[in-house]
Amino acid sequence: MARTITSFRDRTVLVTGASSGIGKETALAFAAAGSNWCSSRGAPGLAQVAARARNLGAEALAVPTDVTQAPSVRPASRKRSSASARSTSS
Known about the structure:
- Helix content is about 45%, strand content about 15%.
- It is of the alpha/beta class.
- It has a single domain (about 10-85), classed as Rossmann fold, CATH 3.40.50.
- A 3-stranded parallel β-sheet has the order 1-2-3, with helices on both faces.
- Residues about 85-90 have low confidence and may be disordered.
């Protein structure tokens, strides 16, 4: 039986590696289910995936990040928190 992610509607998720492969498909699945997302990766395809997610109605924030480097992760986390706060205060 297929599971759905509809319980993530209007929630903000952080997807790493969203520019390609499993991360890309995960990000688009969350967008299609009504989630907003913040993705992190530095690959060139990230902007295109974010644009596709926005076309699905998601609020998508693309933040180039190297998750193996703590100083790189902190700004992504702050931007995600800031975006999440804006979407819940409207």
